[in-house]
Amino acid sequence: xxxxxxxxxxxxxxxxxxxxxxxxxxxxxxxxxxxxxxxxxxxxxxxxxxxxxxxxxxxxxxxxxxxxxxxxxxxxxxxxxxxxxxxxxxxxxxxxxxxxxxxxxxxxxxxxxxxxxxxxxxxxxxxxxxxxxx
Length: 134
Description:
By secondary structure, this protein is mainly α. The protein has helices spanning about 1-5, 15-30, 35-45, 50-55, 65-85, 90-95, 110-115, 120-130. The longest helix is centred in the middle third of the chain and has 20 residues, at about 65-85.
């Protein structure tokens, strides 16, 4: 998973890099044990768009919209923060996104993103950035 940490800071240009990024974020979603609906919500695509998730899982490039790239960047940033906040407890780092949190009115971070969309994703990322002191 160290490649997930490095990906956030590297520019992505080549199609194969974009495909690797897609696979990487889908692996992260698996580690977080998210439902298909939750995966779609975090990526900003329709919950019924399982075909896109399947293509990403196979390594097809993330859609060309700026929104999706920014979402992926924030998801990888969230992952990086969790790994740095809980370096000795990978299980906690992986279940954090689906665990209710008082900071989010007892919603899980995934629920925050589902309710607030991109703004919710930014709220979760900002919360973790602050928790880490960055």
